[in-house]
Amino acid sequence: MCRKELVADSTAADNESVIGDECHIISGQINGPRHDIVFPVDQIDAIDNLILLCKVHHKIIDDQCETYTVGLLQSLKSNHEQWVRTALEQSTHEGIRIRQVTENIPSHLVRLMTGQDLLTILSNAHGYQFEHDDPKSETETNLIASFLQEAQDYGELSADLEAGDRVQTAYRLSLLLNELEEGGFWAFGSREVRKLEGGVETPSDFTISILRIVRSTNSDIVKVDLEISDEKI
Ligand SMILES: [Zn+2]
User: Fold this and answer.
1) What is the pLDDT of residues 94-108, one digit of tens each?
2) C-beta separation of 39 from 87 below 8 A
3) CA end-to-end span of the chain, whole Å?
């Protein structure tokens, strides 16, 4: 009714907060607002009988139920749903999108042998594309999860790293690569430049950091002799 945002964004330390109230259009209570004796009890909490409102409008519609009738609330709700639908369609048509550029898609990923290799892949990326082979145990799941999480954290921090920090970070990443290898996994990576288009800004580069955690026995791994010609690679 007032189009106030009803979910507060999460913070570094906390989850989102739902500010809105889920209100019943037809109350399940005999003395409640808009109670209808013939309305099926099992439909009271159904989505069709609920409307999300701010606390102020929740109070108003329940205090003034002669004004805010079932029919009026249903049409307010369906008008709002239509408004959201239209707004979402417009944002996909006119909004910002990230386009892959065919010639920039890497043909292969390179094994990351050192923390410096890994830091180069992660540094100053606008986005991340992380993939991994299926873990076969909880230990493997934790190993891959903590590796990728830490890799992303360093990637996000990379713009603020000074020379000394970069040495420390590269060393930390080397240790992580060793742990990964001891657990039977290798890291491969590359970078891909996509185009950020739409909106009011002129198109710009959008760099993706691609990281793939592969079981060291995976048959997709191809050993390439760098002495041979580029064509063979
Ligand atoms: Zn409101």
Assistant:
1) 667 888 999 999 988
2) no
3) 61
Q: Decide: 115 and 210 in contact? Cβ < 8 Å.
A: no
Residues 185, 140: Cα–Cα separation, whole Å: 9
Using DSSP bridges, classify how beta strands 185-197 and 110-111 pair: parallel, antiparallel or unpaired: antiparallel
CA of 86 to the centre of ligand 1 (A): 20
Determine contact, residues 24/77, Cβ cutoff 8 Å.
no
> Where in the chain are the domains?
7-94, 97-215
Number of CB atoms found within 10 A of residue 115's CB:
22
- pLDDT, residue 60, reads 95
Query: If you measure from the C-alpha of residue 45 to the centroid of ligand 1, how many angstroms do you get, rounded to a whole number?
Result: 21
Q: Give residue 158 CA to ligand 1 midpoint distance, Å.
A: 42
CA of 199 to the centre of ligand 1 (A): 30
> For the CA atoms of the chain, what is the radius of gyration?
27
- CA distances in angstroms from 54 to 3, 58, 60, 85, 120, listed in the order given: 9, 6, 10, 20, 47
Q: What letter would DSSP give residue 183? A: T
**What mean pLDDT, rounded, does the chain reach?**
89
